[in-house]
C-alpha cells in the first residue's frame, strides 16, 4: 500500500518529476491543507522506492522544502510538515487583500436580520428548558420535513435530526453507521471535506467519474454491483464542483441498485436549492427508497454563519444516530434553530435572493474566463461554482502562482482522490460581481506568470500562504 503523500500527489502527475517539481507538488498540498502541519512524510529512502526515483532527487526535494520552511528534518529521524514563519495555516482567516476562492459561499440573505428579531420570542419561551435538544426543535423539524414533502418525498418530523451544518451531519452519520476498513464509493471529483471525513472514519475510497455532462451511470451502477460498498457519498443536484444534476430516472435506478447490494446512500443536498435557470426540478433521491440518508444545510441559502443542517432518514437510522450523538455533542444551538424556523417560512424570498446573487456572480466569472486564452467555462445553471477547463494540466502550478497575486485558488486535484484532474479549476460563482471581477483579473495575471515561466515559489511573497 502506497503512502498518503504519493496518493495525494498522484503517481501519474509526478512520474519522472525532478526535485523542484516534486517540491512544488508537496508545497501545494501543504498550502491547501491536504498535508497537515506536523504530519510525518515518508523517509527519503521509502519515497525514492515508491516513486522509483533516485534518493538524491528526494533529498534535494526535501532540502528545497526545508530551506523554504515547509518541512523540518531531523538528521537520522523524521521529516514533518511545517509552515514558514509568518505564514497563516490553511483554513485561517485571510489577510491584506487576498481573495479566497477556496470557499464557495455567499453573504447573508437580506431577511436574516428580520428573521433573527422574529425568532426572539420563540427563544425566550425556551429559557425554562434545559437548553439541549438532541434531535432538534419540533418546529424546525416540521419545517424541514414539510420542505421535503413539497419537493416530492413525504417526510415526518420523526425522520429528521437537526445538526450543526451538513458536514456535522455527515460525521454523525459515519459515527452511527460507519465501519472501518469497508469501502466507500465517492464521485470524482467531489466535496473535499467529505473525502476527509470518510478517510477519518477508516473507509477505503472507490471513485466513480462525474463531469460537467453528468455521471457515467454505467460505471456507477457496475461499481456498486461489483464492489458492494458499505456507503456511497453523492451530490446529485448542482454537483460540487461540476454543476451537473442527476436525472430522475437515473436516481431511481441507482437507489434500487444500492438497495440490492446493501449500500447506504449518503446524499448531500447542500446545493439543491441553488437554482439559477436549470428549468426543471428533480425529486429528492430520498423519495426512491429507505436506504437513502439525506443531508442538507441552511449555509448556502441563508448564510455560512448559520450552522444549521439536517439529516433525513428512516426511523431506525434516526434512532441509531440519536444513540451515538451524545458521545460528542448534545444538540444544536437553539437560537440558530429558532432563526431557521423563521427563514424556512419564506422560502420564495430565500431562493429569489440566491438566484439573483448567483446569476450576477456567474456573469462576472463568465466574462473573466472569456478573457483568458485556452480557458473554457461549461453551462452553469446553478450551484456554487463553475468547473473550468484550463486546457492543459497546470492546475497546481496555477494555484501556486495565484498565491503570488493574493488569490487563494485550490487546484483541481484538491477535489479528487489520487491527484488527478490537473486540467480543472473550481471557480465559485458566489462572490459579489466586483469581487469576482477582481479575482478573475488576478487569475489572468497568474496564468500569464505560469505560461511565461515565472517563478511559482511562494516564499518570494510574504503572505503567499494566506488562505
If you had to describe this structure to a student in words, what would you say it looks like?
The chain is of the alpha/beta class and 467 residues long. It folds into three domains: 4-81, Orthogonal Bundle (Arc Repressor Mutant, subunit A), CATH 1.10.10.10; 99-104 and 349-460, Aspartate Aminotransferase, domain 1 (Alpha-Beta Complex); 112-345, Type I PLP-dependent aspartate aminotransferase-like (Major domain) (Aspartate Aminotransferase, domain 2, 3-Layer(aba) Sandwich), CATH 3.40.640. 40% of the residues lie in helices and 13% in strands. The strands form four sheets. It has an eight-stranded mixed β-sheet with strand order 5-12-11-10-9-6-7-8, sandwiched between helices. The radius of gyration is 23 Å and the shape is globular.
Topology:
Elements: H1 4-9, H2 19-31, E1 40-41, H3 44-51, H4 55-68, E2 71-73, E3 79-81, E4 99-100, H5 112-124, H6 138-150, E5 160-163, H7 166-177, E6 183-188, H8 192-200, E7 204-211, E8 214-215, H9 217-227, E9 231-234, H10 248-261, E10 264-268, E11 292-297, E12 309-312, H11 315-324, H12 334-344, H13 347-370, E13 385-389, H14 395-403, E14 407-408, E15 424-428, H15 433-451
Parallel strand pairs: 4-14, 6-7, 6-9, 9-10, 10-11
Antiparallel strand pairs: 1-3, 2-3, 5-12, 7-8, 11-12, 13-15
Helix pairs in contact: 2-4, 3-4, 5-12, 6-12, 7-8, 7-11, 9-10, 13-15, 14-15
Amino acid at each position: 500500500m502506497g503512502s498518503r503523500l504519493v496518493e495525494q500527489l498522484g503517481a501519474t502527475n509526478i512520474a519522472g518529476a525532478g526535485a523542484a517539481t516534486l517540491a512544488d507538488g508537496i508545497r501545494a498540498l501543504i498550502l491547501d491543507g491536504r498535508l497537515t502541519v506536523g504530519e510525518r512524510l515518508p523517509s527519503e529512502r521509502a519515497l525514492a522506492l515508491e516513486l522509483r526515483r533516485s534518493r538524491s532527487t528526494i533529498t534535494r526535494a526535501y532540502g528545497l522544502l526545508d530551506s523554504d520552511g515547509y518541512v523540518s528534518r531531523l538528521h537520522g529521524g523524521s521529516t514533518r510538515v511545517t509552515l514558514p514563519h509568518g505564514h497563516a495555516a490553511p483554513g485561517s482567516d485571510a489577510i491584506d487583500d487576498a481573495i479566497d476562492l477556496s470557499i464557495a459561499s455567499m453573504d447573508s440573505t437580506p431577511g436574516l436580520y428580520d428573521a433573527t428579531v422574529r425568532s426572539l420570542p420563540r427563544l425566550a419561551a425556551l429559557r425554562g428548558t434545559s437548553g439541549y435538544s438532541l434531535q432538534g426543535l419540533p418546529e424546525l423539524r416540521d419545517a424541514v420535513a414539510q420542505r421535503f414533502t413539497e419537493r416530492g418525498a413525504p417526510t415526518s418530523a420523526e425522520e429528521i435530526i437537526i445538526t450543526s451544518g451538513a458536514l456535522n451531519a455527515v460525521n454523525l452519520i459515519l459515527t452511527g453507521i460507519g465501519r472501518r476498513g469497508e469501502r466507500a464509493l465517492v464521485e470524482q471529483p467531489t466535496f473535499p471535506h467529505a473525502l476527509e471525513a470518510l478517510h477519518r472514519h477508516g473507509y477505503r475510497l472507490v471513485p466513480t467519474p462525474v463531469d460537467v455532462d453528468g455521471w457515467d451511470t454505467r460505471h456507477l451502477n457496475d461499481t456498486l454491483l461489483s464492489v458492494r460498498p458499505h456507503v456511497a457519498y453523492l451530490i446529485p443536484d448542482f454537483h460540487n464542483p461540476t454543476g451537473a444534476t442527476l436525472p430522475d430516472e437515473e436516481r431511481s435506478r441507482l437507489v434500487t441498485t444500492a438497495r440490492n447490494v446493501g449500500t447506504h446512500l449518503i446524499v448531500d443536498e447542500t446545493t439543491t436549492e441553488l437554482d439559477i435557470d436549470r428549468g426543471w426540478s428533480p425529486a429528492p433521491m430520498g423519495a426512491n427508497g429507505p436506504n437513502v440518508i439525506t443531508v442538507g444545510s441552511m449555509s448556502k441559502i441563508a448564510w455560512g454563519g448559520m450552522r444549521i443542517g439536517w439529516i433525513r432518514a428512516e426511523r431506525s437510522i434516526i434512532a441509531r444516530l440519536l444513540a451515538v450523538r451524545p458521545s460528542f455533542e448534545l444538540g444544536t444551538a437553539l437560537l440558530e434553530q429558532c432563526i431557521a424556523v423563521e427563514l424556512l417560512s419564506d422560502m420564495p424570498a430565500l431562493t429569489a435572493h440566491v438566484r439573483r446573487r448567483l446569476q450576477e456572480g456567474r456573469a462576472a466569472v463568465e466574462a473573466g474566463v472569456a478573457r483568458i486564452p485556452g480557458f473554457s467555462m461549461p453551462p452553469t445553471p446553478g450551484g456554487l461554482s463553475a468547473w473550468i477547463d484550463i486546457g492543459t494540466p497546470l492546475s497546481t502550478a496555477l494555484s501556486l502562482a495565484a498565491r503570488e497575486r493574493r488569490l487563494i485558488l485550490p487546484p483541481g486535484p484538491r477535489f479528487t482522490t489520487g491527484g488527478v484532474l490537473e486540467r480543472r479549476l473550481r471557480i465559485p460563482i458566489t462572490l459579489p460581481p466586483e469581487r469576482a471581477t477582481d479575482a478573475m483579473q488576478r487569475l489572468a495575471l497568474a496564468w500569464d506568470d505560469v505560461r511565461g515561466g515565472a517563478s511559482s515559489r511562494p516564499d518570494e511573497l510574504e503572505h503567499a500562504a494566506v488562505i
